[in-house]
């Protein structure tokens, strides 16, 4: 291959494809580049891009790799399987619906969904009510996941504890796992957590040779990134697929295996050479990231603890020994670290964003440092502190939800939410004299019951304040009479208080960063409201607030932080993995947090090794060492380690292992950070869907709120109905693709599978049965062959990827390829939905998928059984390309004009959620404000 600045080790790793390959990639040795160049090399050697799998640890890593590959491979990357293992398993299960019980229609639960599901069911439905005081839901979920990832047979697990005289608690926990699996794998209502996606695909491969051979034929080469973080069942899946050719390359580093607590098995990495025939090992040892002193420090630290010998080195010049920061308490540590930060910025040409302060836990270990940063007015951003529910705007919103839902808070909710007087809050924005007048009449726990219109009039409350207060009271009255979902109430509260209007006005007119953060926090919270309601199947506030109180911090998206500003970065070492910063400070490196005394992890119930795929013990002390190593290997120029030597804390043994002679004190640091060494944030590629493109066409401001900021909007009538119709049609199309005849009994079964609750049965069931059967009879008249059902695609243009899924691709009775999208509405509504643009985007994205051109594009309106065709001539397709280009340009330039009184401001389904906000902003425009 041509010389493009690669080392000999990197070239060898890229070009070696003769047998299984283990690439041992030390920190900063360019493994992502090697992975990228190896994919390019494989394609140049004749490998079909569509038959290559690249498995990554995170979705973000998959997106970054795809973006890098586009530069060299262009559109051929779009159908390459670059994804997490979870996404790959989901795709495979959906590709072989006829071989398992739940078909290709099932729900996938993310971590928050799984928590809400288990938290709602474990007491009453999993048989664990009498053990509620002994159970942490998080620990229970970890147990379930560990069992699933090790393919533990639930019946054998129960039998084991019974035969070995296990405690009643152990037997109950084992039985609960059996119930959990049975409920999730219900063929009529399948929900798969991430671990179950893997297990079910593994079982499919194990039990069906036909599927295994088909999957082996689908893929010629597999590359696995972060191999040290794979779990036992993931490794078993790849081993099954690659046999007997074993065309596989795995990339990783045992020294950076830090996810054992989540079920990752470093043994996969360590035993690779023994398990794969003729496997070869290549080390990437040259570090391109850090200065010489840092590389030498962390390499010497880890060298005695490696399975595979390697020596990390660098050609980078010397710069500075690591800095040691000593304190005698947590409070003084905060002062010492911030003093060093100030010194770096004031004397060493550092910027705040060059500096990352890393912790084992941001939530529990950062408060003193944050207090000092705030005292010194130093900007900072945090990740992983779980502070969303501590933000004033969220607490105030929850207090108002308590009032409007006539809920009396318990002691825990009082302590959490009523630690301030909401009358004085920015959320209500009441005048000072109004606050004083209400203080004497207000019951802080039942504020809306404390006044009525007559009271406010008697108190002579200012008109705008009275309007807000009565608006909230009216909401309470309406909620008592006919309650709405908490998500709808969320928007009604923002309108009644005018809080969203005041925030948007500050942000749009003054670019106020504080308003920006508050808006983004409200958007994040709207998504959580939706998730909780969706998972509990309840609109009741008590159910909502109870669930909210139990959600762990690691299941919640972080509170928003200042965007694109010069600020110190605070995060956990786990979050910093894969990142690099000019300056890294490891905080709180004490014996209590970093030691090798704790050998093993403890689980809610110990799983017998004989039932697990991974027979080795998880060694927590090894992992703590590796976590520290990962932290030490993040900096480019400066590594500082902060420790405490005082009454309650002693320095970590790791500092002694490094040796005090290998450190300098902060006062002796005198290097200057050059202008070329400043931190450059990654600019992430924007991912859009056609739905968001359509929203932008209809109203750029709605796009801004919903798709750019991320506000969750309540599902409307046609959305809920459309999901059921969509699922039913998908099932019918899959059966047609399989060549099955469909009669009325099949249609009844399909409808009953998706009309599950009494409301949907009463409202839609009988009508759906008739409409679906009529559709099937009509479809048989125009569908000659089903080519694809719900085919995913990406259309790439500049810095934005438009992702989507085409409902159906067929050969019609004229034997032309036709692309069809299904709408649950009537044909008269198509003009408001930009369906013509949607279908042309699908046409552009799928143009190279088939051996023939797509001749027809059509929309099928289910309510009136009509098939409407649209022009997909080259002229119209070019116009669509230009339209996409202009939208992308507008999004990049942050042009989000309001389309006031446009097609989606007022519809039969009701007002747009942002209507009142726009109405007030429109008033400002007309009045010249």
Automatic annotation (TrEMBL):
Its EC number is 5.6.2.4. ATP binds at residues 25-32. Residues 4-291 form the UvrD-like helicase ATP-binding domain. One of its GO terms (biological process) is recombinational repair. InterPro entries: DExx_box_DNA_helicase_dom_sf, DNA_helicase_UvrD-like_C, DNA_helicase_UvrD/REP, P-loop_NTPase, PDDEXK-like_dom_sf, PDDEXK_AddAB-type, UvrD-like_ATP-bd. It is an enzyme of class 5 (isomerase). PROSITE patterns: UVRD_HELICASE_ATP_BIND (PS51198), UVRD_HELICASE_CTER (PS51217). Belongs to the helicase family. UvrD subfamily. This is DNA 3'-5' helicase. It comes from Methanosalsum zhilinae (strain DSM 4017 / NBRC 107636 / OCM 62 / WeN5) (Methanohalophilus zhilinae). The lineage of its organism: Archaea, Methanobacteriati, Methanobacteriota, Stenosarchaea group, Methanomicrobia.
């Amino acid at each position: 291959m041509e010389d493009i600045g690669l080392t000999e080790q990197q070239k060898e790793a890229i070009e070696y494809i003769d047998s299984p390959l283990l690439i041992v990639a030390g920190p900063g040795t360019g493994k992502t580049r090697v992975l990228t160049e190896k994919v390019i090399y494989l394609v140049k050697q004749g490998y079909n891009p569509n038959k290559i799998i690249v498995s990554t640890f995170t979705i973000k890593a998959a997106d970054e790799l795809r973006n890098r590959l586009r530069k060299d491979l262009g559109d051929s990357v779009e159908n390459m399987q670059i994804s997490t293992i979870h996404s790959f398993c989901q795709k495979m299960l959906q590709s072989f619906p006829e071989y398992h019980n739940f078909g290709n229609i099932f729900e996938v639960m993310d971590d928050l969904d799984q928590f809400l599901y288990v938290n709602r069911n474990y007491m009453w439905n999993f048989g664990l009510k009498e053990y509620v005081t002994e159970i942490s839901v998080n620990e229970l979920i970890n147990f379930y996941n560990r069992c699933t990832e090790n393919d533990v047979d639930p019946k054998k697990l129960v039998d084991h504890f019974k035969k070995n005289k296990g405690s009643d608690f152990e037997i109950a926990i084992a039985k609960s796992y059996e119930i959990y699996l049975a409920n999730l794998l219900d063929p009529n209502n399948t929900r798969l957590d991430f671990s179950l996606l893997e297990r079910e695909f593994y079982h499919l491969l194990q039990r069906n040779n036909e599927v295994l051979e088909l999957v082996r034929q689908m893929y010629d080469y597999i590359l696995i990134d972060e191999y040290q973080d794979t779990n036992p069942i993931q490794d078993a899946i790849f081993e099954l697929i690659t046999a007997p050719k074993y065309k596989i390359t795995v990339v990783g580093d045992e020294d950076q295996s830090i996810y054992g607590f989540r079920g990752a098995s470093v043994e996969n990495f360590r035993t690779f050479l023994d398990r794969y025939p003729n496997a070869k090992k290549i080390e990437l040892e040259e570090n391109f990231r850090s200065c010489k002193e840092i590389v030498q420090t962390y390499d010497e630290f880890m060298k005695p603890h490696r399975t595979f010998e390697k020596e990390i080195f660098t050609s980078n010049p010397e710069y500075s020994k690591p800095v040691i920061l000593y304190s005698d308490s947590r409070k003084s540590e905060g002062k010492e670290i911030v003093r060093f930060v100030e010194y770096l910025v004031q004397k060493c040409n550092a910027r705040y964003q060059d500096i990352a302060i890393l912790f084992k836990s941001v939530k529990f270990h950062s408060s003193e440092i944050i207090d000092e940063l705030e005292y010194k007015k130093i900007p900072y951003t945090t990740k992983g502190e779980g502070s969303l529910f501590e933000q004033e705007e969220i607490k105030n919103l929850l207090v108002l939800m308590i009032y409007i839902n006539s809920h009396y808070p318990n002691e825990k909710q009082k302590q959490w939410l009523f630690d301030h007087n909401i009358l004085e809050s920015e959320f209500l924005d009441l005048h000072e004299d109004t606050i004083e007048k209400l203080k004497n009449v207000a019951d802080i726990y039942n504020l809306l019951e404390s006044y009525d219109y007559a009271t406010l009039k008697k108190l002579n409350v200012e008109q705008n304040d009275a309007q807000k207060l009565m608006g909230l009271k009216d909401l309470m009255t309406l909620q008592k009479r006919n309650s709405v979902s908490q998500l709808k109430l969320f928007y009604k509260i923002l309108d009644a208080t005018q809080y969203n209007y005041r925030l948007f006005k500050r942000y749009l007119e003054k670019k106020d960063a504080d308003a920006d953060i508050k808006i983004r926090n409200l958007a994040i919270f709207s998504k959580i409201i939706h998730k909780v309601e969706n998972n509990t199947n309840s609109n009741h506030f008590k159910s909502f607030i109870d669930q909210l109180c139990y959600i762990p911090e690691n299941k919640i998206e972080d509170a928003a932080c200042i965007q694109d500003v010069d600020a110190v970065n605070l995060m956990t070492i786990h979050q910093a993995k894969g990142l690099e910063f000019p300056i890294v400070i490891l905080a709180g490196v004490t014996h209590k947090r970093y030691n090798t005394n704790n050998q093993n992890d403890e689980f809610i119930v110990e799983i017998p090794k004989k039932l697990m795929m991974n027979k080795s013990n998880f060694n927590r002390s090894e992992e703590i060492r590796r976590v520290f190593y990962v932290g030490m290997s993040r900096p480019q120029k400066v590594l500082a380690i902060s420790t405490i030597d005082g009454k309650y804390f002693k320095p970590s043994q790791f500092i002694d292992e490094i040796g005090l002679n290998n450190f300098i004190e902060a006062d002796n640091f005198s290097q200057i950070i050059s202008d070329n060494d400043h931190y450059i944030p990654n600019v992430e590629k924007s991912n859009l869907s056609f739905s968001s493109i359509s929203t932008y066409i209809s109203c750029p401001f709605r796009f801004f709120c919903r798709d750019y900021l991320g506000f969750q909007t309540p599902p409307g009538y046609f959305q809920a109905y459309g999901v059921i119709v969509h699922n039913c049609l998908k099932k019918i199309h899959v059966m047609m693709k399989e060549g099955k005849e469909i009669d009325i009994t099949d249609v009844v079964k399909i409808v009953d599978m998706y009309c599950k609750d009494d409301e949907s049965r009463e409202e839609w069931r009988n009508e759906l049965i008739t409409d679906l059967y009529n559709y099937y009879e009509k479809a048989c008249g125009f569908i000659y062959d089903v080519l694809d059902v719900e085919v995913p695609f990406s259309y790439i243009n500049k810095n934005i990827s438009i992702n989507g899924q085409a409902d159906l691709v067929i050969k019609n009775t004229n034997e032309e390829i036709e692309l069809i999208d299904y709408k649950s509405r009537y044909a008269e509504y198509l003009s408001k939905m930009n369906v013509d643009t949607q279908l042309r985007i699908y046409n552009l994205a799928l143009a190279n998928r088939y051996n023939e051109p797509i001749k027809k594009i059509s929309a099928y309106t289910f309510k009136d059984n009509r098939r409407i065709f649209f022009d997909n001539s080259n002229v119209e397709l070019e116009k669509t390309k230009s339209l996409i280009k202009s939208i992308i340009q507008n999004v990049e330039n942050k042009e989000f004009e309001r389309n006031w009184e446009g097609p989606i401001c007022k519809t039969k389904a009701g007002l747009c959620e942002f209507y009142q906000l726009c109405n007030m902003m429109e008033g400002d425009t007309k009045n010249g404000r």
